[in-house]
Amino acid sequence: MNSMGGANGRIPRYQGIAEALRTRIREGALRPGARLDNQRRLATSFGVTLMTLRQALELLEREHLISRRHGLGTFVAAPSIDYDILQLRRFAGDLSAKGERVATRLLGARFASPDRRVADALGLGLGARVLVVERLRSVDGHPMSLQRSFLPGRIGDDVVRADLALTPLHLVLEHELGVVIARARETVSAVRLGRREARELGCPAGAPAFESERVSYDAAGAPVVFDHVFIPGDRFRITRELHYEGATS
Amino acid sequence: MNSMGGANGRIPRYQGIAEALRTRIREGALRPGARLDNQRRLATSFGVTLMTLRQALELLEREHLISRRHGLGTFVAAPSIDYDILQLRRFAGDLSAKGERVATRLLGARFASPDRRVADALGLGLGARVLVVERLRSVDGHPMSLQRSFLPGRIGDDVVRADLALTPLHLVLEHELGVVIARARETVSAVRLGRREARELGCPAGAPAFESERVSYDAAGAPVVFDHVFIPGDRFRITRELHYEGATS
DNA sequence: GTCCCCCGGTGTTCTAGAACACCAGGGGAA
DNA sequence: TTCCCCTGGTGTTCTAGAACACCGGGGGAC
User: Fold this and answer.
1) What is the mean pLDDT of residues A65-75?
2) Through-space separation of residue A71 CA and nucleotide D29 C1' in angstroms
3) Domains of chain A (ranges plus CATH)?
4) Is residue A96 helix, strand or coil?
5) Which end of chain A is more exposed for a tag (fewer CB within 10 A), N or C?
């Protein structure tokens, strides 16, 4: 009954508690703005120490699911909202504009079943087959972005025959397949890196990062590629010179 | 000698330790890639418990100053790199493009001395006087962005005479002062929110967010405004439709 | 009536110690 | 020689308890 609660399973106790609370919030048992039980009571009800419970809350706070206020309590946070404001262009990939030493390493290319998000983006079923190309871009030797590209099976079959380690993906599409990207929709958010992404990028798990999700379409309007890119926030900034004719602020 | 080490001053012990380590890294005593002493040794040398030391490391990790690797050690992280890739336009402010109910609340306008970053951006000395205008933008009642605008004293004197609660800052500049923004330089990064920013935005401290820093110049090339904007990453996403003529990725 | 202080409740910081979990490399077995 | 295990070093998770620190509101002082 002492020490090391993680003994039962494999995942740490505090992560399990976080997951339990996450579910309560997602399922609606805890509505936005509602106040949670106080930490000591929660700790007791989960059968852990205050310190352990706080680690769970820490996780949830980083995910913006809760908000802790000293002297007041712990509250369920408000839900997220999307916006559509920026002119964003070529965020994913293509870091080479500045004459830095950019290297692209092919981590792998394999076929797999798409998860829900990828399937939706490419207009496929969950049982479909997609080619997953994973690349790591480094600048001056520092890992800079982790890019996973998903291509529908029909296109993937042709793509894998090319030497992806040497030829950029967009050139393979253009020269080998005659596919030209005409339109794309990109979503950029600020997130935390997962374990795997963090490992590949050589930075700690949970680090804040830009996450870009982009669907590219050919001239006929058919989805060609779904790109999913992570760029650690500490080693990356977007800077841009702007020229106006109109207003500002 | 027991409990509550924070008794000495006012700031928590672990924050002091973090600051000490931060200095060692900044001053170069610890070079990028170097491995720190192991946690137990560090704890002893700072005269605190392992748990307390770990809290300090947690802070540094969030700032990307160090990187912890299970089984290996704690390392000084690589320095950050800037890039210049995006076409970013009107990130700061101006959330109104979508017909949502946007409200701007004036939190305050006061004169103060600029910190180093603001002074540099506006080409002023640290002893100069700047007008700080703080505004909170909400969409559908949800706080969306916290914007601090810094204006050089000479401009600020005229600006404060206008009713900033009613008139957008850029209109004050344009109509009242005849100042038109011709050019700007913007930097967007993914960061964690500080206590104050988090409080204003109604989200937990440490939350990941977009941070935009923008310097705007008039036609003569003189800096007019330095805008500093925070937008929580959980309730905000950048989505954009793109149209290409050239290549992709 | 108005102001201030104090109090209960809640989150925060810290201790001292124990038991894992993960990784690299060396030494022994095959 | 090659492979595997095992060991030492390092970060991680957890306990049980104690003392702050912060906030809002109620009650007393004026």
Assistant:
1) 86
2) 27
3) 5-76 (1.10.10.10), 96-232 (3.40.1410.10)
4) helix
5) N
